[in-house]
Amino acid sequence: MGGKRQQLAGYAVGGIVVVIAVVAAIALLSGGSSGGNEVAADVLPDGGSFPEPTDADSVAAAAKAAGCELDSYRAKGRSPHSVDIGERIEWPTKPPAGGRHYQEWADDGSYEQAPNINMLVHSLEHGRVIIWFKRSLPADQRAALKAYYDDDGYQMLLTPDETGSEYAVSATAWNGDPQPDGTGRLLGCPAYDDEIFTALEAFKDEHRSKGPEAVP
Predict the structure, then answer these.
(1) Using one digit for the tens of pLDDT, what is the confidence trace for 121-153?
(2) Which of 208, 199, 175 is nearest to 99 (CA)?
(3) Domain boundaries, the chain
(4) What is the Rg, in whole angstroms, of the alpha carbon atoms belonging to the chain?
(5) Average model confidence (pLDDT) across the chain
(6) DSSP letter string over 15-76?
(7) Which residue in 163, 141, 38, 19 sits closest to 89, CA to CA?
(8) Short-list 160, 151, 166, 192, CA closest to 66
(9) Phi-psi region for residue 209, left (φ > 0), alpha (ψ -120 to 50) or beta?
(10) Distance (Å, rounded) from C-alpha 92 to C-alpha 177?
(11) Closest-CA residue to 196 (of 118, 103, 133)
C-alpha cells in the first residue's frame, strides 16, 4: 500500500508540473499575465490618423495658432559625458532640450516606455527631435501621434513624458549654434489640438539634424 501511495503521489506531482509548464507557455505566447503587449498597444495604438499639416509662415506662427509656446536656453555641459545613468541632472525646461547627459543615447523610435531621460538628452545632441506626450491623453490622440511619427520617423523619437512637465504634447531639439554648447529648443502645448501637427511639422523642419554633434 505504501508503495502505491508513493506512486500516486508521484503522479500527482508530475501532473502539477505539467500544468504549470503549460500555463507558463501560454503566458509567454500571450505576452504574460502582466499584459506587457497589451499595455504597449494601449499606450501607442495603431490605426490612428492625423490632419495634414499646413504650411506655416514660421514656427512661432504655427505654435501660436495651436495654442503652444516656445522656449529656448543656452545649453551647458556637453562634455565630459556623465558615466552614471542614474545621475540627477537639472535642466532649465521640462522636458529638457539640451545639456549634460549620459554617455550613451536612446535610439530613434516610438516608445511605450520612456527611455532613460539622460539618454534622451544625448539623442538631442545628435540632432534628433523628440516628441513627448502625456499618457493620460485619450487613446485616439495617442494613436494620432503614433501615426504622425510613423509617417516620418527620420531622426525622431516619440516617448511618454515622464518629466513632470505641464504640457500635453511637446517637442524638443538641440541646435549646435552658438558653439560650443548650442541652444536648447522647446515647443510646449498645454492642450492637444489638431493644429499641433502643423506646429510639430514646422518645429521638426526648423530644428531636425542641427544638433551640436552630427550623427547620421
Answers:
(1) 999 999 999 999 999 999 999 999 999 999 999
(2) 175
(3) 2-33, 59-207
(4) 23
(5) 86
(6) HHHHHHHHHHHHHHHTTTTTTHHHHHHHHS-SS---PPPPP-S-HHHHHHHTT-EEEEEE--
(7) 163
(8) 192
(9) left
(10) 17
(11) 133
In whole angstroms, give the CA distance from residue 1 to residue 104.
66
Q: How far apart, in whole angstroms, are the C-alpha atoms of residue 203 and residue 153?
A: 14
pLDDT in tens, 82-100: 999 999 999 999 999 999 9
34 pLDDT higher than 90:
no
Give pLDDT, residue 214.
87
Q: Angle at CA 117, nearest 5°, toward 116 and 122?
A: 100
In this structure, what C-alpha cell is assigned to residue 174?
A: 538641440
Say what the pTM is: 0.81
In terms of residues, how long is the chain?
216
Q: Tell me: pLDDT of 33 over 80.
A: no
Residue 201: its H or E element: helix 196-207
Q: Which residue has the cell 506626450?
A: 133
pLDDT at position 9: 42
